[in-house]
């Protein structure tokens, strides 16, 4: 009996080169599939991180815009709180004037309220622009007329018709002034 299958100790023929290549390819195939799956997972995670970052950025922008709008809307709140007592004093002066006809007392009350207004403005960095007897400055003053005089040098403010105010370094309202000119100069 010479059956080749009957002899279990017989050596099997060596694998061919093609079989060896197929085995090597089969061994690397799961690794490539795993690598491809890993890359897909990494790509999905990166996309998710990008979407989350974009959403966070958009939320930040909306929150910042709301905060800026609230700041703009309520920026004058401290000024309004400081002006309310001034309004209260004006109303008290009106009520007192209606009850009594003491003009001197009313005048003193109005002067106090005017001083309170200026103090409130000063607390908020809005101050009166100096003008009287100073050189004319077109950045701070608005000349409404000229007056010939030899009492002051030319281009000097001789009268303030309406005071001007400045907030920090910006002019809120220029002073309306009369400016001197030389007596012999033509108008």
Give structural notes.
It contains 3 helices and 6 strands, in the order H-H-H-E-E-E-E-E-E. It is α+β, with helices and mostly antiparallel strands. It folds into 3 domains: 17-75; 76-124; 126-187, Head domain of nucleotide exchange factor GrpE (Nucleotide Exchange Factor Grpe, Chain A, domain 2), CATH 2.30.22.10. The strands form 2 sheets. Strands 1-4-5 form a 3-stranded antiparallel beta sheet. It is elongated and about 105 Å long. It starts with 16 loop residues before the first helix and ends in a 6-residue tail after the last strand.
- Quickly name the level 1 CATH class of the largest domain: Mainly Beta
Tell me the β content. 15-25%
Proportion of residues in helical segments: 40-55%
The fourth-level CATH homologous superfamily of the largest domain is: Head domain of nucleotide exchange factor GrpE
Q: How many beta strands in the DSSP annotation?
A: 6
- H-E string: HHHEEEEEE
Form type? elongated
Report the biggest beta sheet as strand number plus sense, adding barrel if it closes. Answer: 3 strands, antiparallel
User: Which oligomeric state applies?
Assistant: single chain
Give me the secondary-structure category. Answer: alpha+beta
Low-confidence stretches: none
Short description:
Helix content is 55%, strand content 17%. With 187 residues, the chain is of the alpha+beta class.
